[in-house]
């Protein structure tokens, strides 16, 4: 079963609130607001496989010492029981909009090994004062503005800028390009994400992966319905392991991409 914030379990709510309390304590009280985006606000959150997606905004840039403490905390907390993806930005990075968007700190399971090595070896390859930018943030902010939840602090509209459509499109096309290449490696994620980009270009709809899959299963030619429904079924059930047909995946990918290129 999948959830969103309004109907999720108390365990999920407590996990999120505890994360934000500890994050605020590490940052030492200069938090402007904490915000929830992603599947837990859009619908389709699966407790067995989905990330909890958070954004935190601070008054001032983070110190290196604070970044290291945050990395240690999220290494301990993420995947216990839910994986966490969080970006922390300071107010000036939002007031002076740039794309790709600068940020102070980011954690996701993708970064786990790098941070573990960084802290163990006492290096400063990643946790430093170098300017870092993330193309994904434009898409996160667009979704936050449309669906997001302010958990603490100032309202979303008072903190986050309106995102130019051109920057949102550039942001989602970055991930789209990777999905074209990796559909055999991550068939569920890539199938649903390709459909999400196609739907946005076709109708201007900003959707969750689940919504995009349901749309594709209704709107695309019938020959693609099986593979789309397979992706939807596995996305909603972590206990399902689907053996995808490579030919079906490639045909769907090529069909979607041909239409996307025409729309672009």
From TrEMBL:
Catalysed reactions listed for this entry: spectinomycin + ATP = 9-O-adenylylspectinomycin + diphosphate
Entries under Pfam families matching the protein: AadA_C, NTP_transf_2
Domain Polymerase nucleotidyl transferase residues, every copy: 31-95
InterPro entries registered for this protein in UniProt: AadA/Aad9, AadA_C, NT_sf, Polymerase_NTP_transf_dom
SUPFAM superfamilies, sorted: Nucleotidyltransferase (SSF81301)
CDD domains noted in UniProt: NT_KNTase_like (cd05403)
Occurrences of domain Adenylyltransferase AadA C-terminal (ranges): 158-256
UniProt keyword annotations, A-Z: Antibiotic resistance, ATP-binding, Nucleotide-binding, Nucleotidyltransferase, Transferase
Membrane-spanning intervals of the chain: none
Name this polypeptide is given: Spectinomycin 9-adenylyltransferase
């Amino acid at each position: 079963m999948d959830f969103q914030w309004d109907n999720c379990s108390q365990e999920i709510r407590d996990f999120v609130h505890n994360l934000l309390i500890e994050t605020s304590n590490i940052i030492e009280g200069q938090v402007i607001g904490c915000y929830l985006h992603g599947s837990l606000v859009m619908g389709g959150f699966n407790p067995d496989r989905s990330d909890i997606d958070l954004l935190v905004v601070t008054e001032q840039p983070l110190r290196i010492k604070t970044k290291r403490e945050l990395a240690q905390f999220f290494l301990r907390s993420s995947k216990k029981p839910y994986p966490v993806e969080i970006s922390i930005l300071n107010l000036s990075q939002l007031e002076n909009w740039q794309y790709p968007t600068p940020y102070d700190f980011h954690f996701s399971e993708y970064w786990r090994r790098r941070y573990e090595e960084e802290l163990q070896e006492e290096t400063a390859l990643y946790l430093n004062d170098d300017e870092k930018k993330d193309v994904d943030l434009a898409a996160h902010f667009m979704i936050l503005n449309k669906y997001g939840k302010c958990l603490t602090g100032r309202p979303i509209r008072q903190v986050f800028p309106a995102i130019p459509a051109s920057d949102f499109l550039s942001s989602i096309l970055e991930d789209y390009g990777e999905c074209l290449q990796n559909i055999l490696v991550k068939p569920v994620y890539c199938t649903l994400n390709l459909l999400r980009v196609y739907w946005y270009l076709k109708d201007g709809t900003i959707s969750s992966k689940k919504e995009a899959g349901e749309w594709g299963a209704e709107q695309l030619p019938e020959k693609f319905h099986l593979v789309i429904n397979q992706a939807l079924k596995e996305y909603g059930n972590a206990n399902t392991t689907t053996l995808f047909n490579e030919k079906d995946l490639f045909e769907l990918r090529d069909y979607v991409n041909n239409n996307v290129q025409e729309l672009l």
